[in-house]
């Protein structure tokens, strides 16, 4: 398995990157503790869609981000360090245990879904703790349903803590998103045509192209392997494509959202990954095949996947070691997505 070591060095940031260039989280004075599940009596957080939760709830997320932004930058729970955590795991800054010559890269492999789940889990709990609202759940940017296919208004208000000035200006709302954007560049479609196109992209990535764990979750990546063996369908698109579509395309690296090292600096990153995580749950439980049969997809059972582990800071600022095995049951992590419509299931091309 890929076991993340506490050792973190300067990762590989691309040319023309925007500072800071060093993204290792603050060093922990003590050894990491092993992850334990939250109390099963904790309220179940329901992560709802941005366009469904309403302005008041979005104001709560804005307040959480503002609170994280107001923590000292030396605090691993600060917005600054949370963004850095993502940067560290994307630039190979963390080393593999016992292999100080090899970095940990959590993209383009089977680590993609579980890493981001663990990362959001702690991010959400930090937000809840700072808000003093134990039931707080992250809102979800559901770009796969027509009502969510564009940057939500709450993120476009320049006075809001959810605003990020480093985005593609021509993709501000009410622009309809293009879910396979970087594959073909800007398309010449009406909004209605683009929505239909997006639903078909979703069908391909979630149903016809994602019949096996390796196709959906990504290729195996084991200790000592070269990084980035290959992404799953959804990691490639809409995940990567929506990153690029959101970031400033006039910049060489399409910051902030369009580059791994800087994506976590945009408060939209977290609702974006909430949707990715929701699609993992959907793939496992709710896909209905062309013949009408319900398909439940199983994850990998390979111990090299299950025993891979990451180091992340929790809501008490303790460094925690969490494994892939730990994140496979959302209920045990005390969150759910409730019932969300999946209109693309009917969009078989
Ligand atoms: Cu770690 Cu959306 O990227």
Automatic annotation (TrEMBL):
Free-text cofactor note: Binds 2 copper ions per subunit.
Domain Tyrosinase copper-binding: 107-124, 266-277
Entry keywords, A to Z: Copper, Disulfide bond, Metal-binding, Oxidoreductase, Signal, Thioether bond
GO terms classed as biological process: pigment biosynthetic process
Covalent cross-link (2'-(S-cysteinyl)-histidine (Cys-His)), residues: 90-107
Swiss-Prot/TrEMBL cofactor(s): Cu(2+)
Ranges that cross the membrane: none
Keyword Glycoprotein part of the UniProt annotation: no
Disulfide bond positions: 8-24, 23-87
Binding site for Cu cation A: 86, 107, 116
Sites where the protein binds Cu cation B: 239, 243, 273
Family according to the record: Belongs to the tyrosinase family.
The protein's name in its UniProt record: Tyrosinase copper-binding domain-containing protein
Phylogenetic classification of the source organism: Eukaryota, Viridiplantae, Streptophyta, Embryophyta, Tracheophyta
Shown part of the complete sequence: 88 to 436 of 588
């Amino acid at each position: 398995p890929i076991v993340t070591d506490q050792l973190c060095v300067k990762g590989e940031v691309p040319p023309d990157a925007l500072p800071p260039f060093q993204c290792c989280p603050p060093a922990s004075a003590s050894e990491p503790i092993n992850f334990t599940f939250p109390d099963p009596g904790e309220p179940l957080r329901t992560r709802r869609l941005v366009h469904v939760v309403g302005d008041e709830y979005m104001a709560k997320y804005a307040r959480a981000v503002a609170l994280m932004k107001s923590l000292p930058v030396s605090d691993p729970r600060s917005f600054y360090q949370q963004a850095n955590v993502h940067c560290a795991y994307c630039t190979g800054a963390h080393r593999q245990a016992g292999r100080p010559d090899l970095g940990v890269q959590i993209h383009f492999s089977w680590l993609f879904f579980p890493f981001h789940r663990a990362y959001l889990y702690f991010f959400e709990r930090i937000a809840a703790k700072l808000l003093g609202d134990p039931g707080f759940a992250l809102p979800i940017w559901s770009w796969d349903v027509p009502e969510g296919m564009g940057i939500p208004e709450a993120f476009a208000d320049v006075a809001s803590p959810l605003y990020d000035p480093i985005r593609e200006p021509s993709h501000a709302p009410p622009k309809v998103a293009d879910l396979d954007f970087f594959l073909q560049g800007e398309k010449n479609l009406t909004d209605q045509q683009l929505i239909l196109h997006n639903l078909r992209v979703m069908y391909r990535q979630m149903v016809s192209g994602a019949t096996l764990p390796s196709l959906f979750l990504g290729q195996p990546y084991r200790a000592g392997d070269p990084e980035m063996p290959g992404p799953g369908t959804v990691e490639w698109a809409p995940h990567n494509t929506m990153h690029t579509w959101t970031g400033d395309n006039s910049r060489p690296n399409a910051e902030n959202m369009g580059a791994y090292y800087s994506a976590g600096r945009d408060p939209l990153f977290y609702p974006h990954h909430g949707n990715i995580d929701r699609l993992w749950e959907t793939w496992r439980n709710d896909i209905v095949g062309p013949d009408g049969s319900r398909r439940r997809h199983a994850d990998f059972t390979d111990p090299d996947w299950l025993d891979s582990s990451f180091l992340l800071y929790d809501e008490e600022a303790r460094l925690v070691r969490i494994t892939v095995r730990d994140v496979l049951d959302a209920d045990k992590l005390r969150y759910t997505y409730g019932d969300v419509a999946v209109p693309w299931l009917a969009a078989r091309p």
